[in-house]
């Protein structure tokens, strides 16, 4: 899911740079990317459950950092230093929603 959170922060940067049309496709592609690599890696390496996760995150980070960043944000030369609190709060909010969802589903399935 690291690629997903990276895509969310990348889409925030795209919106700030005035290229918000590309934000949602990148976030959705990151989810499909994660599921694709997880499924492919699980089929190729069934005994190594951590290996597909590592591959998905490393390759996703490389794709976000190099081809996408340099093609979509290469013309942005000015950098305004901003506090890190907004991305951290977005990350914590997404994690909280996912955690609450997991708790709700596990209670329903296990009858607690």
From TrEMBL:
KW Membrane (keyword) present: yes
Transmembrane intervals: 49-69, 89-110
Keywords recorded for this protein, A-Z: Membrane, Transmembrane, Transmembrane helix
The protein, known as: Uncharacterized protein
Species per Swiss-Prot/TrEMBL record: Paraflavitalea soli
């Amino acid at each position: 899911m690291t690629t997903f959170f990276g895509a969310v922060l990348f889409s925030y940067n795209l919106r700030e740079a005035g290229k918000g049309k590309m934000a949602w496709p990148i976030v959705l592609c990151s989810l499909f990317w994660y599921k694709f690599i997880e499924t492919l890696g699980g089929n190729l390496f069934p005994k190594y459950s951590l290996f597909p996760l590592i591959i998905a995150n490393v390759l996703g980070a490389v794709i976000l950092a190099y081809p996408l960043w340099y093609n979509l944000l290469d013309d942005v030369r000015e950098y305004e230093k901003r506090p890190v609190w907004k991305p951290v709060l977005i990350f914590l909010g997404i994690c909280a929603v996912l955690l609450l969802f997991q708790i709700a589903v596990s209670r329903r399935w296990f009858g607690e």
